[in-house]
Write a structure and sequence with these properties.
Largest sheet of chain A: 2 strands, antiparallel
Helix content of chain B: 55-70%
Strand content of chain B: under 5%
Main location (chain A): membrane
InterPro entries (chain A): BPD_transp_1_N (IPR045621), MetI-like (IPR000515), MetI-like_sf (IPR035906)
Distance between the termini of chain B: 25 Å
Strand content of chain A: under 5%
Oligomer: heterodimer
Number of domains of chain B: 1
CATH superfamily of the largest domain in chain A: MetI-like
Largest sheet of chain B: none
Low-confidence stretches of chain B: 1-27
Number of strands of chain B: 0
CATH class of chain B: Mainly Alpha
Subcellular location (chain A): Cell membrane
Largest interface: A-B, 49 and 42 residues
CATH topology of chain B: MetI-like fold
Radius of gyration of chain B: 24 Å
Keywords (chain A): Cell membrane, Membrane, Transmembrane, Transmembrane helix, Transport
Radius of gyration of chain A: 25 Å
CATH class of the largest domain in chain A: Mainly Alpha
Structural class of chain B: mainly alpha
CATH architecture of chain B: Orthogonal Bundle
CATH superfamily of chain B: MetI-like
Order of helices and strands of chain B: HHHHHHHHHHHHHH
Distance between the termini of chain A: 10 Å
Shape of chain B: elongated
Number of helices of chain B: 14
Membrane topology (chain A): Multi-pass membrane protein
Order of helices and strands of chain A: HHHHEEHHHHHHHHHH
Helix content of chain A: over 70%
Number of domains of chain A: 2
């Protein structure tokens, strides 16, 4: 077990390092002109040279990547042309070209927003999906089952950004979307995110209805469920105690992977509802050619994705003892 | 409708992978039917699938004959009808005989013409990306599964690597870099050139990230197929490797390939429109539904038709494609039937 975790950890780290090098090559070694972006239109060659010098952009490529990695691990110092020394503590991802803020701080500000959206949405779609899926499986073939399956098929086929957009524009029942930190004001936090949660939750609930329905139908057909019924246990207890427990294991695995996926794909929800998360940060960076920020979001995104995959794999082996580690 | 696959190598030869199926489904026909044939006939009986296919073909028709349809209306997608716009930028006319869907606020371009032309980038980007990812995915999957050894290990690592990248973030980042390479960050960059670079970088990014999941699927299938007797027999007979790959293995993979392509197509339509809507996909002057939607958001109260026409277009197209994809999957794998 320990060996398996270590091996998975090693491969996860290798993926992150290769992502780092590949995206670094893409962003910083391409013939881009960061100094021009920072300096603006009225800029002297001396000023550009000074900026290049202070950012280390005149160093050879290998040195630059080395400095960047060193910054992540132990931090680094920037010396501006005026001789001002700026300390950038680890994990240092550089400074935003346009805002001058440390990228690490910008990411740390944006991450809770994305986490709030995705986790809140996950609660909604997991709850709604599992409930309707279980009910549909219990009453298989009934009108309710057909309606649930039909609706989920339709909802799944409508483009998500269109649904989110229409909700944002026309569903005025929701309080206006905004982000307030949870610890500042929990009520404002929840009401500002309600529209995003409902949109993300109800559209994704469709797939969870299908997953949990299929899984529950399979589980309810097993011998031990028949045995439980023949012992005279009430139907409710059979379904919810014996059935749901076993039937939900595969659904929980999908949930883990989905949450990881959505953490890096919350861009649509964020930009449509105007919530300042990672996605919105990367879009703003795109418009301003703010490469350190783009690089930071890509890096954070891949770390989150790789870590979540790892966690799901490991948790799955605990949930289902039949899974053998290889 | 003609069957989609009419390759004699595929339909004439009884496939050794499914010896029991033909006799089970058609006990009276002496001639064996390939699984693909069976799936297609199953698909033809599916009403939802046939209606969805009809809707999809209608959109293809609209996209192909966009200039003709616009000419029929008597408008084109780029002419500015400034005379029909009031001082605040709102159109003076609604739906008229000259402008079937009305005109755009501010610029006054004809909405029907923009709508029919807007079907084009959606279908071209989604279609091209589906073709590219299918070809690359199948080829890499075949090679990785069949070659085994270090080739397989390297290719599998690349597949896993690509699947563990946050692709939407890259889809935003890569065009930014490509633009600086090919156009530069100058403010006065040529709009046509920028639009072109954005078009190709969108296709490039979606292709780079799209092939890996199919390659993984195909690799798994090949791993089990290559130990089968007919493959062993072909190798013993001295059939060259490329022929084993493409004449023996590939026909047996038609099912998963068609299913994966038909499910991929609507997701790429959505991705193109979504990224364009965010402002990181296609740009003006390309007429695109995603672009129209993002402009129309500002005017959604005063001029709802501006927003709703592209919204309805993309929703119906994606709905039809998704239902068709589901039906194709069910036809090829009856176990998933609803």
């Amino acid at each position: 077990m320990l060996f398996y975790i270590l091996r998975r950890l090693a491969s996860a780290i290798s993926v992150v390092i290769v992502t780092l090098i590949a995206s670094f090559a893409l962003f910083f070694l391409a013939p881009t002109d960061p100094a021009g972006v920072i300096c603006g239109n009225r800029c002297t060659p001396e000023r550009i040279e000074a900026i290049n010098d202070s950012l280390g952009l005149d160093e050879p490529a290998i040195t630059q990547i080395g400095l960047y990695m060193k910054g992540i691990v132990v931090g680094r110092t920037y010396t501006t042309a005026g001789g001002v020394v700026t300390e950038c503590p680890a994990p240092c991802l550089g400074y935003s070209y346009t805002l001058g803020q440390p990228v690490t701080k910008m990411l740390a500000d944006a991450l809770p927003v994305t986490l709030s959206i995705v986790l809140g949405g996950a609660v909604v779609y997991f709850g709604v999906g599992v409930l309707t899926g279980t009910l549909a499986a219990k009453n298989r073939g009934s009108t309710m089952d057909k309606v649930a399956v039909g609706t989920s098929l339709l909802v799944n086929s409508v483009p998500y950004f269109v649904v989110a957009l229409l909700v944002a524009l026309y569903a005025t029942v929701f309080p206006p979307a905004q982000y307030t930190p949870l610890l500042t004001n929990p009520w404002a936090w929840a009401s500002g995110l309600l529209a995003a949660w409902m949109t993300l939750g109800l559209t994704n609930a469709a797939s969870y209805t299908r997953y949990s329905r299929a899984s529950m139908i399979e589980t309810l057909g097993q011998d031990y469920i028949r045995t439980a019924r023949s012992k005279g246990i009430s139907e409710r207890r059979v379904v919810y105690r014996h059935g749901v427990r076993a039937g939900l294991t595969p659904v929980v695995t999908i949930l883990g992977l989905d949450v990881a996926f959505q953490l890096t794909n919350a861009i649509f929800t964020e930009s449509i509802f105007g919530l300042p998360g990672l996605g919105l940060l990367s879009i703003r960076a795109f418009y301003q050619y703010d490469l350190p920020v783009l690089m930071g979001t890509v890096l954070l995104g891949s770390v989150v994705l790789v870590l979540m995959n790892l966690v799901v794999d490991i948790v799955y082996t605990f949930l289902d003892p039949r899974v053998r580690l290889g | 409708m003609e069957p989609l696959i009419d390759d004699p190598a595929l339909t004439g030869k009884p496939l050794s992978s499914e010896p029991a199926t033909p006799s089970k489904t058609s006990p009276n026909t002496a001639k064996g039917k390939s699984p693909t044939r069976i799936a297609l006939s199953r698909l033809r009986r599916d009403k939802v699938a046939m209606v969805s296919l009809g809707v999809f073909l209608l959109f293809v028709f609209i996209a192909i004959f966009a200039p003709l349809l616009a000419k029929l209306e008597g408008q084109d997608p780029t002419t500015l009808n400034i005379d029909l716009i009031d001082r605040n930028g709102y159109p003076l006319i609604g739906i008229t005989g000259d402008h079937w869907f009305g005109i755009e606020p501010r610029l006054g371009r004809d909405l029907f013409a923009r709508w029919v032309y807007g079907a084009r980038p959606s279908l071209i980007v989604a279609g091209l990306v589906t073709v590219i990812t299918t070809i690359v995915g199948v080829t890499v999957g075949l090679i990785a599964g069949f070659a085994g050894g270090w080739v397989d290990r390297v290719l599998s690592w690349i597949i896993d690597f690509i699947l563990s990248l946050p692709y939407l973030l890259f889809a935003i980042a890569v065009p930014a870099v490509l633009l600086t390479i090919f156009v530069g960050t100058a403010e006065n960059a040529d709009a046509q050139q920028v639009a072109q670079v954005r078009f190709f970088s969108l296709i490039l990014v979606l292709s780079i990230f799209g092939w890996a999941s199919l390659a993984r699927l195909i690799r798994g299938e090949v791993l089990s197929l290559r130990e089968r007797e007919f493959v062993q027999a072909a190798r013993v007979l001295g059939v060259p490797t490329h022929k084993v790959l493409f004449k023996e293995l590939l026909p047996n993979l038609v099912g998963p390939i068609i299913v994966s392509a038909s499910i991929a197509l609507p997701t790429y339509v959505v991705t193109e429109a979504g990224l364009t809507f965010l402002g990181v996909g296609l740009v003006e002057p390309t007429p695109s539904w995603g672009l129209t939607i993002s402009t129309a958001v500002t005017f959604y109260r005063a001029h709802p038709i501006f927003l709703w026409v592209p919204v309805i277009g993309i929703t119906i197209l994606v709905l039809a494609l998704s239902l068709l994809g589901d039906a194709i999957r069910d036809a090829f794998d009856p176990r998933t039937r609803r």
